């Protein structure tokens, strides 16, 4: 088997692991906002819990990234993270207070923090063989197949009148399946670094300056992106549709996410960062639609939301892999995700507070932050093209 074909299969196998993991935690996330509301949480609490979970989840990644690069134990750390990430989700079926549910939601984000930097390093080696945009885009697309399947599983349980607990309990199936596949794939591919030629790392003083400017631009996008738990809370509070239909709406967004990841990822390999710039321009209009009070407009808004998420998840990491040497990529992914998560936390907390105060202000802030990122991304794109 050629090196490129073997790398492609490696990317696919990692995608299957992520598919199962996403089915588990995205299935839960499709109803956690509404679930917290049913347990008595306010809009501010939902926004803060969602944002704090992202803060912990992303903040821990900086330490995990450095640890991964120092120990080179990418597979072991990845496995530990996936185990925590998926194991706590079915336990939500046993909770009876919003505080307990919030604790498990934060624990799930912690597991994701542990496995993401080393997993992304492993994935980057295969992506270098098949095309960075395509490799990360294919992985994200498979992620989102799981993110569609999970909410559909939950919606089915809700439609069968098994309630929130039944919805959380069914997710034990993809959780176990994903861990089994992960253990198998690391035996087949013990050294994914072999996919990528070894290059000398002459600059040992830190990460490239361009990396930091790029992180600043992405932070603006993250801060302006409303998290789905707040959107679900809004739909529940306005009585737009039933809980099962909210889960289906999330499944729709994840399906769009999968398609966008492939399309924009492949486009990135041809035109570079302009693919992300176009995606941001499209997705910044989601806020006025999803918070309009109309379920029909909310559907359109979630399509735009899915486009933004898909393009971000595939292209953002592909750019980092291209501007940072392999030897420091775990640290770079950890720092990048920490900055992204901090911005997401600030944005989520602000959105939750603005929701209780003025949805109009929420919409304006969301759009303004994303719009501000576009000039910065254009500058980064020009600098990348100038580099040898």
TrEMBL record:
Organism annotation: Leptolyngbya sp. NK1-12
Keyword check for ATP-binding: no
Alphabetic keyword roster: Cell membrane, Membrane, Transmembrane, Transmembrane helix
Subcellular location(s) per record: Cell membrane
A molecular-function term among this protein's GO annotations: transmembrane transporter activity
Residue ranges of every copy of the Major facilitator superfamily (MFS) profile domain listed in the record: 170-388
Protein name: MFS transporter
CDD domains according to UniProt: MFS_MJ1317_like
Annotated PANTHER family: BLR5212 PROTEIN, CONSERVED PROTEIN
Superkingdom in the source lineage: Bacteria
UniProt xrefs under InterPro entries: MFS, MFS_dom, MFS_trans_sf, Uncharacterized_MFS-type
């Amino acid at each position: 088997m050629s090196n490129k074909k073997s790398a492609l299969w490696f990317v696919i196998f990692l995608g299957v692991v992520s598919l199962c993991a996403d089915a588990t935690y995205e299935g839960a996330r499709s109803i956690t906002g509404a679930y917290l509301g049913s347990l008595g949480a306010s809009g501010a609490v939902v926004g803060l819990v969602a944002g704090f979970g992202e803060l912990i989840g992303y903040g821990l990644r900086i330490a995990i990234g450095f640890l991964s690069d120092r120990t080179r134990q990418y597979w072991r750390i990845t496995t530990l993270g996936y185990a925590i990430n998926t194991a706590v989700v079915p336990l939500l079926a046993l909770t009876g207070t919003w505080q307990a549910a919030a604790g498990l939601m934060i624990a799930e984000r912690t597991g994701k923090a542990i496995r993401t930097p080393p997993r992304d390093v492993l994935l980057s080696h295969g992506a270098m063989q098949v095309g960075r945009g395509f490799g990360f885009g294919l992985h994200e697309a498979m992620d989102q197949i799981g993110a569609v399947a999970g909410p559909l599983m939950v919606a089915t349980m809700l439609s069968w009148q098994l309630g929130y607990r039944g919805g959380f309990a069914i997710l034990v199936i993809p959780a176990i399946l994903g861990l089994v596949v992960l253990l198998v794939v690391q035996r087949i591919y013990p050294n994914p670094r072999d996919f990528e030629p070894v290059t000398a790392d002459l600059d040992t003083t830190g990460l490239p300056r361009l990396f930091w400017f790029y992180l600043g631009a992405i932070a603006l996008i993250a801060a302006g992106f409303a998290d789905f738990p707040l959107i679900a809370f809004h739909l529940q509070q306005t009585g737009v549709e039933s809980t099962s239909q909210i889960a289906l709406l999330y499944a729709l967004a994840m399906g769009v996410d999968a398609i966008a990841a492939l399309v924009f990822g492949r486009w990135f390999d041809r035109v570079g960062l302009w693919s992300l710039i176009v995606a941001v321009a499209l997705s910044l209009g989601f806020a006025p639609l999803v918070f309009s009070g109309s379920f029909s407009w909310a559907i359109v808004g979630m399509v735009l939301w899915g486009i933004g998420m898909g393009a971000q998840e595939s292209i953002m990491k592909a750019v980092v892999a291209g501007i940072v040497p392999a030897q420091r990529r775990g640290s770079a992914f950890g720092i990048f995700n920490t900055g992204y998560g901090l911005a997401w936390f600030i944005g989520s907390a602000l959105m939750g507070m603005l929701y209780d105060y003025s949805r109009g202000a929420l919409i304006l802030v969301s759009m303004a932050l994303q719009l501000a990122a576009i000039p910065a991304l254009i500058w980064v794109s020009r600098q990348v093209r100038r580099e040898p």
